[in-house]
Specification:
single chain, about 120 residues, alpha+beta, four-stranded antiparallel beta sheet, two-stranded antiparallel ribbon, about 30% helix, about 30% strand
Length: about 120
């Protein structure tokens, strides 16, 4: 995590087994040093081995740009996390497959992902 005293907040995008993907947002008027007007940093992790992951950081000017890049690059993670949030809330946006496993529809899962990331209050 970037150590900054002017952090507005963080938003978890994906709850992984070892590490969580998240964005960190700075307060208005503060920027990350060395990154042209970047107020948002996205931390995401890729598989290294059974015991650790590789950490990656990507800087953005706005939260919306960070979320859109994440959804485009990691659509499977966004859908999975949206499904988890849908079933945790108890909403009836689910369907079952032939084995009786309850699944949320992809569109509903992405809508839930958007609603809990883009429109949350920091």
């Amino acid at each position: 995590m970037v150590e900054v005293s002017h952090t507005k907040g963080t938003i978890t995008l994906y709850e992984g087994c070892l590490n969580d993907d998240f964005v960190q947002v700075l307060e208005d008027g503060y920027y990350y040093k060395g990154h042209n007007k970047a107020q948002v940093v996205l931390f995401y992790y890729t598989y290294a081995n059974e015991w650790s992951n590789h950490e990656h950081k990507k800087f953005f000017k706005t939260l919306e740009n960070a979320i859109e890049w994440y959804k485009k690059s990691f659509k499977d993670r966004a859908i999975y996390q949206g499904r988890v949030w849908l079933t945790d809330g108890g909403e009836d946006y689910t369907e079952t497959d032939e084995d009786g496993i309850v699944l949320a529809k992809d569109e509903d899962a992405l809508d839930e992902f958007d609603s809990l990331t883009l429109y949350c209050e920091l």
